[in-house]
C-alpha cells in the first residue's frame, strides 16, 4: 500500500526530461558555432549601370570631339581651296585681257605685261616667239581689244587653278581697218608662285 510520503518522492516525467535535456542543449550549442581557419571571402565588385553609362558617355564624347576635329580640318581645307579659286579667277580674267589686247604703239608694254603675268613653259615659249610676233603685228598694223564675257573655275587646288573664259575680241589690221568681233574660249592654268597667281598654260580648245 502506497503512503503519502512515497508518492511525494516519485519522479515526474517533467523532472526526468528536464534533467536529461540540459547537457544535450549545451553540446548542441557548441556544434552550432564551429571554428573555421579559412580566410574571409572577398567579394568581387561588379560595375554598376551608372559606371557603364559614364564610360559609354566618355567614349561618345571622345568620338564626337575626334569627328569635329576632322570636319574642322576638312572645312578649313575646303575654305582654302575656295579662296584660292576666287583669287586665281580674278587674276585669270585680268591676264586674259592683257593677253588679248594689242596696241601697235605700245607693243613693248604689252609684251612685258604678258611675260610678267606668266610662268613656266608658257613664259619661255612666249618669250622666244615675242620678237617674231612683234614684227608681224607691226607690219600688219594689228590692233585688238579683249573683253571677258564670262569666266568660271574648271578645277582647283590650293596652288593650281584652271579657269575657263569666254572673250570677245575686236580685231582690226591694215587690210581690215573696221574692227571684226571674234569670240573665243580659252582655258588658263594659274599657278601660285611666291604669293602671285601666274599663267602657266593657255589653251584654245
From TrEMBL:
Localization annotation: Membrane
Region (Disordered): 1-45
Keyword tags: Membrane, Transmembrane, Transmembrane helix
Keyword Transmembrane attributed: yes
GO-annotated cellular components: membrane
Chain ranges passing through the membrane: 51-73
Chief localization: membrane
Domain of life of the source: Bacteria
UniProt protein name: Mce associated membrane protein
Lineage of producing organism: Bacteria, Bacillati, Actinomycetota, Actinomycetes, Mycobacteriales
